[in-house]
């Protein structure tokens, strides 16, 4: 299985065009939060229409997995906390997003939404508990914020650590976690695009200018993960 992972595209349409062009080379395209850009001059409701069309185009050639980030929130949900309601709509299998788990081959993928308060955080905890039941051989999570205790949280000045995610990883020990959110992590001193918590591999492709988004290609058959930035790349073995 080949998994093409990127995050923090922030409504940069050239990056979406690149993903559409590259999708046929992957079995799965994973976009790990901040698809939209909350500070763009383009209204969010317009961004959503455009982004849904891109997701449909991607879904024509690969399985598409998406989770929300902080820039994707479009209003309060039923409990009053901010959610990305547009990523919670029924897609009839077109792509899989917030709150869902899907089994593909030997892998279970669990898409965890960005949580804005205790109610949504508890829902994520319940989502993971449910997905853990009769889990298959391999389990992969998508969660926009990287976990505490990893170098993926470092932006060169401060550390933005998600302790809740780290605790869930310690509890369930998924095989991989795909994240984003900290744009500078792959390039700063003390940061990286990959790390490990116990037996769990964690990834953050980062965000950079240019026509091609930083991205990771995970090849489970070859047992490799290849990261591509604008000015370089790196490869690691998954074992």
UniProtKB/TrEMBL annotation:
Domain Calcineurin-like phosphoesterase residues, every copy: 1-184
MF (Gene Ontology): hydrolase activity
A Pfam family per the record: Metallophos
Origin: domain of life: Bacteria
Name the UniProt record assigns to this protein: Calcineurin-like phosphoesterase superfamily domain protein
Provenance organism: Mycobacterium lentiflavum
Organism classification: Bacteria, Bacillati, Actinomycetota, Actinomycetes, Mycobacteriales
């Amino acid at each position: 299985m080949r998994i093409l992972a990127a995050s923090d595209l922030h409504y940069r349409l050239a990056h979406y065009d690149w993903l559409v062009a590259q999708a046929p080379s992957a079995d799965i395209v994973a976009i790990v939060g901040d698809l939209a850009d909350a500070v763009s001059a383009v209204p969010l409701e317009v961004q959503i229409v455009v982004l849904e069309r891109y997701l449909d185009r991607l879904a024509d050639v690969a399985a598409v997995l998406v989770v929300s980030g902080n820039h994707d929130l479009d209003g309060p949900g039923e409990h009053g906390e901010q959610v990305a309601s547009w990523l919670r709509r029924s897609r009839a299998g077109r792509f899989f997003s917030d709150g869902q788990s899907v089994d593909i081959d030997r892998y279970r993928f669990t898409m965890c939404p960005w949580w804005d308060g205790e109610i949504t955080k508890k829902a994520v905890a319940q989502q993971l508990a449910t997905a853990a039941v009769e889990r298959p051989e391999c389990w992969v999570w998508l969660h926009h914020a990287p976990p505490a205790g990893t170098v993926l949280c470092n932006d060169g000045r401060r550390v933005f650590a998600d302790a809740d995610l780290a605790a869930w990883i310690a509890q369930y020990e998924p095989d991989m976690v795909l994240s984003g959110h900290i744009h500078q992590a792959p390039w700063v001193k003390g940061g990286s695009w990959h790390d490990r918590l116990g037996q769990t591999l964690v990834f953050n492709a980062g965000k950079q200018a240019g026509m091609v988004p930083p991205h990771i290609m995970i090849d489970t058959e070859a047992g490799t993960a290849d990261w591509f930035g604008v000015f370089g790349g790196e490869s690691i073995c998954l074992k």
